[in-house]
Known about the structure:
single chain; globular; 298 residues; eight-stranded mixed β-sheet; alpha/beta; 16 strands
Amino acid sequence: MEKANERVKILIEALPYIKEFFNKTIVIKFGGHAMVDDGLKEDFAKVLILMKYIGINPVVVHGGGPQIGEVLKKFGKESTFVGGMRVTDKETMDVVEMVLVGKVNQEIVGLINGLGGNAVGLSGKDANLLEARKIVLGDDPKDTKEKNGSPPEIIDLGRVGEITAVNVGVLSTLDRENFIPVIAPVAADKNGETLNINADLVSSAVASELKAEKLILLTDVAGVMINDSLVSSLTAKEATGLIDSGEITGGMIPKVKCCIDALAEGVKKTHIVDGRVHHSVLLELFTDGGVGTQIVPE
């Protein structure tokens, strides 16, 4: 009886959140350890199905870096990264598209559908969902000037892109028909050349265009950590200040910037959540305390 009462308390605590998010769109970036652990993958699929059945509209954007690296290694091709982005020549792009669209995306879709959901796999090329252009990086001019006064070095990453537009018509159609969209982060430029896009950037752009209620980034850390302590909530201004002061560092910087950009475009709240924790999405959405870091507007 005690266990039964505890379950009822959990449901009662979730009720106001279920009401608040009913018929709202939540974009989730699925990545990190949650994508390679079979138990976590199944839990995530069940969470998506539950969300859909209680009237919440999840949209999933997935990564696949480790899987791409494994296949490239089998082909005898080493991965090279600059600023956290994979240098992608034509041969590498073929592998990236094969792995993300043909393997990872279909595995996620198959898992959701096998557990009783209705998911549809997409890439950014489907229905022109994502429009993109090639990224060319340059060294910070201030840094190079300090070094030798020379102009910034141009770094060509190959077929690596950034989003220029999101056309959400296909997502709206899938929503009306009660499907869960699962998006692989590849797109084509205006010349039809396929580009590899960072999944965090894609999820932020999609959430922004949909004016989503929430953007949730699943990662392999508890959230934003300052002095080894989890920060449960930040405003966009506070988050920017922590980046500028050097207290937010490394791979957390682009994730926090994705959240800040999404908030600026009308997303209500953003969250960075530990995907290694079972049911972390539900815990963040439907409990008073949450489990990660939320970043909110000013």
